[in-house]
Specification:
By secondary structure, the chain is α/β, with parallel strands linked by helices. The chain is built from ten helices and 15 strands. A seven-stranded parallel sheet has the order 6-5-4-9-12-14-15, with helices on both faces. A three-stranded antiparallel sheet has the order 1-3-2. A three-stranded antiparallel sheet has the order 10-11-13, covered by helices on one side. Helix 7 links the parallel strand 5 and strand 6. Pfam families: DeoRC, HTH_DeoR.
Amino acid sequence: MSKKPLRHKEILALLSEQPTLRISEIAATLNVTRETIRRDFQELTDLGLVDRLYGGALLRHGPETNVDQRNDLLVEERKLIARLARDLLGDAQTIMLGSGATTVHAARQIANECQDLTVIVHSLGVIPALETNPSLTIVMAPGVFHPGERAMHGVQTVEFLQHYSADWCILGASGIGAEGASDALLEGSDVYRCMIRRSEKCMILADGSKFNRRFPSRYADWSQVSALVSDRMPEKDLAGAIRARGAEIVVPQPSRPGAA
């Protein structure tokens, strides 16, 4: 076996042990240059085996993994997204919060910085973060429990949410495409659509690994979304499609040279 296929096999083996790795980490482990690993990542991406991240790569799986597994991935990226999401809320008094790994980070940020806010949820996963702030009023929707997502879904959940209105809904996504946001879990999309209808504004939180990925259930067109919040800007065509439908793209601002 020539060096490149062997190196690709070693990269995939490393990613199977630690699902996200930086270019610098793999280059040091395999004793090659960063540029070599960048080319390897691109070739593995073209083969559909990995997803590129800023400065690294994520092992691509078929169906999306359960929320407990996702909680350990892309932690720094999700923390950054959560901070940006909190800044968008302004003086909101009531929000609806969806399920997912990134929304757990948003819940932590909300609990740390918000006061006297009503949070309507359908996910048990966000409760531990929210309950640390006694000033928050937490409203939990009933429904059929989905263990993989640790969230309630179904007719009861949707009917319950229809009795409430919110300033914002904050939702995650499995995939971000030109047509809108999609989710791997069909049951979750019905809940998300209801939250969008019952909220004045909607923000979708998604890290860059979700870009140009499509899952079975598209739950939002970009015309229904106020903002996509991410850790980096989508590539030009995707960003253009999102903005053309009226959604804002919120990403970290680059640091200015010499800034403290």
